[in-house]
Amino acid sequence: MFNRPNRNDINDDAQDIRNDVSQLADTLEEVLKSWGSDAKDEADAAKRKAQSLLRETRARMNGRSRTTQAACDAVSCATTFVREKPVCALGTVAAVGIFVGALLSLRK
User: Fold this and answer.
1) Residue 53 in contact with residue 24, Cβ under 8 Å?
2) Tens digits of per-residue pLDDT, 34-87?
């Protein structure tokens, strides 16, 4: 009747979350250490690693794959842009419409 979660599954999930948070903390610590250093490559590598790990962790927390989470993030970003700058969004849509119309008219 009811699908009760297994206690081992909950413990495994909690351990996974602890590991992810620990990895994030370590990576952010590396970013902060490299921020003060003059090595730009080192800072960029630490920043990319932190961003990647944050994306993976957020996707796992939401129960999605990385690609699904990336699509949701893109939609959220587009929605925010349209809400903040509706005139610019309308202009962009009009330009794309004219471009597609021109392509279709050349096809004949």
Assistant:
1) yes
2) 666 566 777 777 777 777 777 777 777 777 777 787 788 788 888 988 899 999
pLDDT at 98 over 80: yes
- Residue 1, pLDDT > 60, answer no
DSSP per-residue string spanning the chain: ---PPPHHHHHHHHHHHHHHHHHHHHHHHHHHHHHHSS-HHHHHHHHHHHHHHHHHHHHHHTT--HHHHHHHHHHHHHHHHHHH-HHHHHHHHHHHHHHHHHHHHHH-
Q: What is the pTM of this model?
A: 0.43
Q: Please, which residues have CB within 8 angstroms of residue 43's CB and are 6 or more apart in sequence?
A: 31, 34, 35, 37
Identity at 9, one-letter amino acid code: D
Residues 49, 27: contact at Cβ < 8 Å? yes
Please check whether residue 68 is in contact with residue 59, taking contact to mean a CB–CB distance below 8 angstroms. yes
